[in-house]
What does this fold into?
Amino acid sequence: MKWKVCGMREPENIQEVAALGPDFMGFIWAPKSPRYVGQDFVIPALPEKTKAVGVFVNETTDNIIALSKNAGFSVVQLHGEEGQIEIEALQAAGLQVIKAISVGSVKDLDLSDKPNFYLFDTKKGAQVGGTGEHFDWSLLTQYKLDIPYILAGGLQSGDVEKVKDFPGLYALDFNSKLEIRPGFKDVEQVKELVKQL
Ligand SMILES: O=C(O)c1ccccc1N[C@@H]1O[C@H](COP(=O)(O)O)[C@@H](O)[C@H]1O
It folds into this structure.
């Protein structure tokens, strides 16, 4: 099972978690997030296996492309109102696109965009991302598209066994439930996660 750890920020913590072999590592460029890395953040060297992901909420396409070159990510995760026009522009610039969808009902899975991956996260009022809560996973039985999806929303190691056989599931995303404080992961919890995976 592929896995992504998100909301990283501190150099030593990044290296310790990267050494445990995530397939994706996410860095959040959303100023309102407690995990915001800051405008000038540059992603440190990661193992070859680990793709760096820039996470955004309604950032302009031009800024994302410029940041991808300055900061060093090849995958972008979009949590705002971005649609197919932005997705295609980012793909044309050589980026892989993960489109995050806040899921609260089956209507949220009526999708027509063509990202490389969807990421299904928990809908919680106006909050986007980092809720630390699950959504009703039974809704995922209604997802019939052939675009693979990443599951997010309050995941922790004990959830792996419950979700790993969901059809269409590409990867699991771990964020706030593995934290000691925002932007700093508990390496022991990440090790336990790796055992479960
Ligand atoms: O974590 C944040 O602060 C955040 C802010 C803005 C956009 C995305 C954010 N995080 C993403 O949210 C999901 C779920 O996180 P959690 O496990 O519920 O804490 C994950 O993909 C994070 O990348």
About this structure: The chain has one domain: 2-196. The beta strands are 2-5, 24-28, 51-56, 75-78, 96-103, 117-122, 149-151, 169-174, 179-181, 184-185. The chain has a mean pLDDT of 97. The helical segments are 11-18, 61-72, 84-92, 160-163, 187-196.
